[in-house]
Amino acid sequence: MHYLFIFFRQNCIQFLKMLQNSNLSKADQINKNSSKKRNLGINRRSRFSLNKSFNTNHDFIENSSLTKISSQSNNNNYETTLTRTTANNNTSIKKKTGKSLMNINVTSNKDHDKSMKLEEYNFDDTLCDIPYEIFDKNDVTLCIEQSQLKSNCIDGESDESCSDIIPETPNQTISTHDQCFSSTPLFLMNEPNFEATIISSQKNLLENLNDSNEKILACLNVTELSSSANSNNEQSNNDTFYDLPIGVRDYLFQIRGIKSLYSWQKHCLKLSAVRKRKNLIYSLPTSGGKTLVAELLIMKEILKQKKNAIFVLPYVSIVQEKVRELSPFAVEFNFHVEEYAASRGILPPRKRRKKNSVYIATIEKANAIVNSLVELNREDELGMIVIDELHMIGEGGGRGALLEILISKVLYKFLHVQVIGMSATFGNIEELKTFLNAELYINDFRPVELIEYVKMDDTLYEINKNSEELYRKVRTNISSALKAGDPDHILTLVLEVIPQNSCLIFCSTKKNCESVALMLAKSMPKELMVNKKEERQQLLDLLKSTISGVCFTLKSTIAFGIAYHHSGLTMDERKLIEEAYSSGVLCLLCCTSTLAAGVNLPAKRVILRSPYIGNAFLMKSQYKQMVGRAGRAGIDTSGESIIILQQKDKVKARELLEGPIGSCKSSLSYQDGKGFRHLILTLLGLKICMCLNTMESFFKKTLHYIQLDDSKKSTLLDDISREINHLVKINMLVIIDGEENEDIQLTSLGQATYKGCMDIDKTPFIYEQLKHALSGMVLANELHLLYLATPVDHVENLYLKWMLYYNQVNKLNPINLKTAEFVGVTESVLSKKAAGKRCSKDSFDEFIYKRFFLALLLFELLKKKSVLQVSETYEISRGFLQNLLVSSISYTSLLIHFTEISEFWVYKILFQALLERLSNTSSIELAPLLEIPGIKE
């Protein structure tokens, strides 16, 4: 057993035992030599008396617990009592009269989280509930309020041996004079003249009782208390689990195997912002368990508040993964999960009478949901919006600007909605806190320890950021025999962990992913082919059965448990490979950086093939995201990351590792104010602001304004006026003089741009193309419509092989050639380009030629040709082809809204029919993924 003794020198200011268990029903008297009560001075005006009694044979130890604290003032009569309410097992503090008596800080270090502050309570004249924290028996120690502390032991114990107080140390004294810190705090003391000792045997207990000249305040059986605390688990009473049905806890274990929450998760679910439904930002490293907290908060909002929620995720693949994960909970607890990604999702959202919904959406779709609710005055249906990867607001492009616009609209129009932001750590997170008017919670918790390494030449160094020497040499001569094609000794680094454990290799390009996978497969020991041979053959058979077939690289690598993972894979291929890796059939993935930001696929070891993504050097946020995949919670005790460096990158790499975390800056001003213009159109389209003054008020609530220098804040009105004038010039706005203020209104082009959420710079081109097509559209087949529905964003990334293009156009029938000529594609220009000749700008618009080439790809898919067939014919990667199809579906959905203006009335019917054709094409391979209970209602 272990016993906690509290000794006091001089006057004690504050002491409160914060533990709830079944024994909190008995108050004992304490007195070392007699039954006389000892009064301990609190301050000049009031005094505490904490009393406990025991007999000389120390039988009191078995049932000792402190339940009552009484206070008497010299000037006022008031009493503060620690009581236990049996109705819900919550401990409460009630103060009858007088001023605020004390503050209580309770901290927990469970799971090696030494900086976590659980909660602060200010006691005033009201009755306030104090939630308790669950501790294992090895977690029950004591806590000093000071934060910069170190251990100090008695009986000659070293500081190191005192790191875990209860298990290793027979006796330990902790004193604020010595600036000490317990590794796992449970109790709070705030007094510069106090000392506390943990004693692990009755012999030492008697010695301390007999030898001490200090006043004994309390003696507690720590082992008993911890055991009792464990029995309560995470629930605040027998019927709920953080205000959710207790079945949610049981279902988490049944579906996901989660037995207990991490300490930081428990704390986060008890924060003031959660209890009071205020905005919250919480920031942790990758794989820290952020998403589970978000899911519990969403279910609480739906089941308790009876409101809908939006869960904003950055990518379609993550949306689909989250839909699959939450759907079983929706079926079990009677709510809807609705997917809003690509072409999925009804706008406005369907009204539900009996069940509430969580809309799992990409940034673009979440913005459309919010717009539709504002247009129909349905703001009261929404109760919560959760944003994953909140730091994407500063990514500097259109998506970052759109995310800021989305959040700003919610803060301005949905005053009752709780905004929850999840993010990786970044330098200026306080500015995000101000923007959201949110409570901020930051933690560096990782479920497993991360050990970071750098490899240069044949030497491996451990990264030690807390030392003057950043690199500590671990070993040399990593590979004695240099194998051809593997100058970086990747094979050696991989074989140290596979096949027993898993490994990820991040490569700078898609081509490099495939070449590294092939190189490793050729060099692997043949014995590895025996491991999971049948399962890997089944995987190959499944890949062959997909509409795209299986490529040569995967045929060669899967037998060794190796595959590649990048955007060149089709959705079916990607899903099968991810499932095989998660189940252990595959033990090694060569992947691009997109995997780090996508679905959760952790590994024992993560290898960064180089510090580059494409030609750009890694940013710290990207590096953190990649190495954050190292370590599998519940499987590994630690994870490892190795970044391979060349000597030329040594200086940049040091800056990467030692440099500060990057800042998150507003993206509204990207591309010379494009985000500004988008926001202005949105505010006018939703009728949130109709004049310059109200726009200025709205802009002052944006992150952009918060981050402006004081000198630039004074010019905000001029900046808005400048962008409005620009929109007037491109025929998107018109200014109407009124009696008092100038009203600003959208033109038909501006209305179409707002409705279709189109890129402002590309809208004039789209508008002119649609208008031109009305004069001679070829409707004999779908090719002309497909050209109009080809997303303009894909055009920029396309590299044309002109000879191949020329040959394919020569095979077109007269009807399709007529379409080509109508949009501006001629055989004469193609023949010149195929021959390597230049064409004048007047006769050649490369953008149109690229767009028509993409339309030909879609036309082939619409004719039921497989992805593999089309990719081989046109020499385009399978993944690009399928991404084009999915993007075309999304773009067609936007065109339906874009063409709501009267002059384009006929297009709405045509694009709706085309959308149905595109969505039902067999090449998209989506139907099986979308037939999930709870989303197709």
Automatic annotation (TrEMBL):
Keywords: ATP-binding, DNA damage, DNA repair, Helicase, Hydrolase, Nucleotide-binding, Nucleus. This is Helicase POLQ-like. It catalyses: ATP + H2O = ADP + phosphate + H(+). SUPFAM superfamilies: P-loop containing nucleoside triphosphate hydrolases (SSF52540), Sec63 N-terminal domain-like (SSF158702). Residues 271-444 form the Helicase ATP-binding domain. Gene3D superfamilies: 1.10.3380.20, P-loop containing nucleotide triphosphate hydrolases. One of its GO terms (molecular function) is 3'-5' DNA helicase activity. It holds the Pfam family HTH_61. It is found in: Nucleus. Residues 490-676 form the Helicase C-terminal domain. The keyword Nucleotide-binding applies. The keyword S-adenosyl-L-methionine does not apply. Coiled coil: none annotated. The gene is HELQ. InterPro entries: DEAD/DEAH_box_helicase_dom, Hel308_SKI2-like, Helicase_ATP-bd, Helicase_C-like, HTH_61, P-loop_NTPase, POLQ-like_helical. GO terms for cellular component: nucleus. One of its GO terms (biological process) is DNA repair.
